[in-house]
Amino acid sequence: MQKKAVVLLSGGLDSTTVAAIARKKGYEIYALSFRYGQRHEAEISAAGAVAKLHGISRHVIVDIDLRVFGGSALTDDIEVPKHLDGKIPEGVPITYVPARNTIFLSYALAWAEVLQCHDIFIGVNAVDYSGYPDCRPEFIQSFESMANLATVIGTESQKSISIQTPLIDMTKAEIIKTGIALGVDYGVTTSCYDPADSGEPCRQCDACLLRAQGFADAGIADPQLQKY
Amino acid sequence: MQKKAVVLLSGGLDSTTVAAIARKKGYEIYALSFRYGQRHEAEISAAGAVAKLHGISRHVIVDIDLRVFGGSALTDDIEVPKHLDGKIPEGVPITYVPARNTIFLSYALAWAEVLQCHDIFIGVNAVDYSGYPDCRPEFIQSFESMANLATVIGTESQKSISIQTPLIDMTKAEIIKTGIALGVDYGVTTSCYDPADSGEPCRQCDACLLRAQGFADAGIADPQLQKY
Known about the structure:
The structure is a homodimer of 228-residue chains. The first copy, chain A, has 228 residues and is α/β, with parallel strands linked by helices. Chain A contains seven helices and five strands; from the N terminus they run βαβαβαβααβαα. Chain A starts with a strand and ends in a 10-residue tail after the last helix.
């Protein structure tokens, strides 16, 4: 029987690459996306497109309303910062959603336990990232330890829960090159925090700037931008 | 300024006692309940009644649909086990909801970070409990470590996140006596996994049996049962 993996899939560049890596490793992919009160539906559409293209066995979209707590530009009535000079400032930005990866991984853990699956993939990255605390390797290791105490599958079985982060030490350019080698179509992915209704990225938020730099460093044109 | 605490409030006996304990300790209470595809609304109504009675500053009910994953008698089309002999069998029961406390605590963590609050209270108990892995002290400690790595409040501030479990070493009878001393009205709380539409408890599920034994050991009549 093929090994199963739960893959957190936002429809962005990173998580799409992670899904391709997990598939290459021989896993049957159970993709999990969230509608979490983010400002736009472009992420969810992109996740659906990625799921169709990349042979994902099942794609579940969970509705969670983080707006009930507020506190982030991604879920609240706060402007997404634009950087007209093309530079990302230091520090944790206002686009940080409190405990978001903790919540996402908790749902992934619940699904993994129901599926009797031991591997959860998440596209966190500690190199070209936005300074969120829940993207660091020490957070992931700590979540993994907790997950093994939290569940029957983690405590009763010999094969415990593993949180896999294949991108953790890669630059954005390396991620893009890896994905291209695996046949990923980045044209269907989206990274922008604040796209137009058409889905066109703003080109000025943290996520757009990180993505643009990654494609520039990789020496590849971003196929998403060629659509506009 | 009064210290704030996020309290996970199910409307059951344990979490209601926890809210009373936190209030006695001087905290301003932010109560968090979940509508998670459980079979009945009685829990949510009870949580609302408790919030009104016990001077809670804000009560947020979050909709999360754990039915999307299935795998539990509490959220799926599986019968809640009844024990006509009044005895609870060994092992993890089918009423276990995979990763439930992990998900609940993750939401509490998100709200705590938005509120800039350092204390989260949860009514887990390692004595008279149903054998769920996510009720054990080692799980709670591990979650606390993870929470401090997951958040800006945990990593930047000197006062880190604390997961408080005042009931962890108490018997059900001790919990009840503590609550009575703090003025808790257990008549508005509910524990049953499978109540009638009227809210009347089944008296035969794990939760009813643990509750009945607790009141018997405390030498107190259960005020909830006097309503039916």
